Amino acid sequence: MTRRARIAALTLAALAACPLAACSKAEQAAKPPAKVNPHATTLRDGFTDLDGLVRAAKEEGELTLIGVSRDRLNFGALVSRFSEEYGIDVRLAEPDASSGRQIEAAKRVKPDVFDLRLDVAVANAKHFAPYRVAAWDEIPDDLKEPGGAWYAAYGGYISIGYDSRQVHAPASFDDLLRPNAGKAVRVALPGDPRQVAAAFDGVMASALIDGWPKVRHGVEFFTELKKRHRLATPERATVLIDWDHANLTRGATAGAGTSAWKVVVPRDAVLAGYQVQAINKNAPHPAAARLWQEFLFSDTAQNLLLKGYARPVRMEAMEMHGTLDAEAAAKLPKANGEPVILTVPQTDEGRTYLRGHWTAAVG
Length: 363
Hints:
CATH architecture of the largest domain: 3-Layer(aba) Sandwich
Largest sheet: 9 strands, mixed
Strand content: 15-25%
Number of strands: 13
Number of helices: 15
């Protein structure tokens, strides 16, 4: 038998002893694992696919988030689901930290992922590691940094929460100045607007005129409330101007669906605000940080946020795909008017004006 004939015979024998499917699996098993780059800017470039990312994140085994509380927006369920699904321990550092505080504490706390207001994220983009999640194209352009330094995950609209036993249903901010059948209207913000972000946003929402914030108009509105003895502390208020998810939570915790607390988004003054995600440039667990981002923007996590009354950033896309939790979405108040998102210059102008005029006008 010639050498060529012997090789052909051996090849045929090997094929007979090894079915095609089995040989394919054996060859795949023999291949070296794909190279991993936990600092990559996309899933494909760094891990090939989600399975590769999961393996890398599991090897790290830990994840540290800052500014995220289990008691807010259903994050407790969100964190538990992530930890159980991937076997990664999640540490929540300074859960009540403001956006500014998160940046200040980063060197000491060493978080993997930040949860920030838009203006703070824009100002601190140099501290973040760019990463574009798989759902990147479904995030509106005005809610993400083109290179992937930061991008919004969830948000809400400024709303009017009110005790329907004491206050006629308001449709606008101006309705809070009108007669109320002899019953006391006591309006509050959730804190000092010069110090508390949600209170500042409440003033800016009242300042909207034809889609533009005129902060002087907002201060004048609260000045008029004061003149009419309608300003109060949150504890005594029958009306609270706050984010819709915060007002909805107040109603839900008042007692088994029997609460008289109702929530509306003021007509033609729809101020939207979003919390953006950013991976720490010096994240101790870069793969776990990226896995958290992929999870946070998944249908599962976005719907869990929706159950906590947040408005997921992919809400419109999920509705088109038929993956949105319709029952949870129906609990959010409807908005009449085009949502407005403050630009960084508008936010800066508003804060400057309040520092100079709020005390004299409102106290």
